Amino acid sequence: MIDSHTADLIGFVGAIVILTGFAYQTLRNAAPNLFSNGLNFLGASLLALSLVVNYNLPALALELAWAAIALIGLVRIVARRR
Questions:
Q1: Are 32 and 25 in contact (CB under 8 A)?
Q2: Is 66 in contact with 30 (CB distance < 8 Å)?
Q3: What would the pLDDT profile of 25-51 be if each residue is shown by its tens digit?
Q4: Residues in Cβ contact with 66 at an 8 Å cutoff, skipping those fewer than 6 apart
Q5: Is the model's pLDDT at 78 over the cut of 90?
Q6: pLDDT confidence of residue 32
Q7: What is the DSSP string of the chain?
Q8: Overall pTM > 0.70
Q9: Are 8 and 15 in contact (CB under 8 A)?
């Protein structure tokens, strides 16, 4: 199992990844794309993993919803490309 310190580290990496995706999308003034949705999905998933160890139900629910929305965006982008 993951210890609390490692979970915090994973959570911080997830937060940085989400912020990178958000900054990339915002500074480009663009609609979400595969890269930004991928970063959002990865970051939210990492944060959710850290919240399983350092349990916080509201934050965990938020990150799971964030990951689900990003995953929907990824699926839509991939489907449009086909």
A1: yes
A2: no
A3: 888 888 889 999 999 999 999 999 999
A4: 18, 40, 44
A5: yes
A6: 85
A7: ---HHHHHHHHHHHHHHHHHHHHHHHHTT----HHHHHHHHHHHHHHHHHHHHS--HHHHHHHHHHHHHHHHHHHHHHHHH-
A8: yes
A9: no
Q: What token pair was written down for 18?
A: 């989400």
Mean per-residue pLDDT, 66-78 = 93
Tokens read off for 76: 């839509």
Which residue, chain included where needed, has tokens 């938020």? 62
Rounded-to-integer distance, Cα 44 and Cα 64, Å: 7
Tell me which residue of 48, 45, 70, 71 sits closest to 60, measured CA to CA. Answer: 48
Per the CB < 8 A criterion, the answer to whether 22 and 36 are in contact is yes
